[in-house]
Amino acid sequence: MEPETTLLHARFPVSDPYGALNMPVYHSVAYEFETAAQMELAFTGKSPEHVYSRITNPTVQYFENRVKAVTGAADVISFNSGMAAIANTLIAIARAGGNIVTSPHLFGNTYSLIAYTLKEFGVEPRFVDLTDIEKTRACIDANTCALFLEVITNPQMEVADLKMLSSVCREKRVPLIADTTIVPFTAFRAADFGVDIEIVSSTKYISGGATSLGGLVLDYNTFDWRCSPKLRPLTEQFNTPAFSTKVRREIHRNLGACMTPEVARLQLNGLETLVVRYERVVRTCRALAARVRELKGVSSVNYPGLPGHPHHAVTVAQFGEFPGAMFTFDLASREACFRFIDRLQLIRRATNLFDNKTLAIHPASTIFGTFTEEIRQQMDVSQCTIRISVGLEAEEDLFADFAQALA
Ligand SMILES: *Cc1c(COP(=O)(O)O)cnc(C)c1O
Q1: Which of 126, 144, 216, 371 sits most deeply, having the most CB atoms within 10 A of its CB?
Q2: Residue 407 and residue 401: Cα distance in Å, rounded?
Q3: Cβ(145)–Cβ(93) under 8 Å?
Q4: CA quadruple 189, 89, 95, 226: dihedral positive or negative?
Q5: Do 158 and 130 lie in a common domain?
Q6: Does the predicted model carry a pTM greater than 0.90?
Q7: Whose CA is nearest to atom 1 of ligand 1?
């Protein structure tokens, strides 16, 4: 079945006593048992019952299973935000004396997590231009715990060549971890391009219009963890995927950043409409990016779905017609950007991506506002750039707002 069908018709693991068509929200912290022996089995992971909702919850588990059904991942683990999903993943894999190879073009908090937070625990950050395969290969050594990247970076709109990078990872026996938040898994099958672990901020497209924060980790069980000094013992101990076992049994419970059942319920609804919403916003995004390019005062538009973009070929190879619903454009100066943003009448001045409403932001002064100008330059975050996250409004109404704000 196609993703939109699978997402609507995944069955409950046990039938609902009232025949509910939607998964109920199980507002219960703990679960009761008949006997001490049954408790022992459940608590030691030898039987699948729920015991405590920080560890698993029926509504949350149903949400994870729907994502599993549509992606074919071996395991899906949910979190209370995209950042929690990234932090749990990197903590599961990294160790003192090891390093993480990544691009300086990262979501601001991910950059800060790798450059500062993990570094203080002895994990060396290695920032490299991931579009330069030879430089990337040279950065990877025996202590590399993972290669981490975002499939389309924001706001630089750099597109990693995943086939090329995954072949370097295979050769060096390093897992490839990709944050695919910008292109949902219904439109892009990350595992087909060699991604071992996929991370998604479900706050964005999946939440169904900025209803809630959430994060997902998808383990495709494609990496041979016997190559990882840290996870090798788990491959001998359990016959489940080593990475997701480490996350589920240890990191996720110990850090406690679990998704709540009400959020899972909201995001289940978001999943049901994901395919139609995504098709619509990408179509509007492509059309607007092309039209905004022609407006007076716009010095350039950056959208990898447009022919002429430096990464257009790899974009088409990986994402087909659907490379996300975010574009950026440059004006002459920071002042011109502020003027444009202040004059908007329909488009909202806010951060976040993939709300149902179209949003505009000046990244350099906001999301990246607390970094030094030197680091902003390393990250290629320009004072002249505005980022647009395209929503579900009519294209003509959005274009009219651009035109009047630039007039
Ligand atoms: C928003 C975002 C995150 C962080 O997600 P939260 O749910 O806000 O924690 C990580 N990566 C990318 C690419 C994002 O857009």
Answers
A1: 216
A2: 10
A3: yes
A4: negative
A5: yes
A6: yes
A7: 201
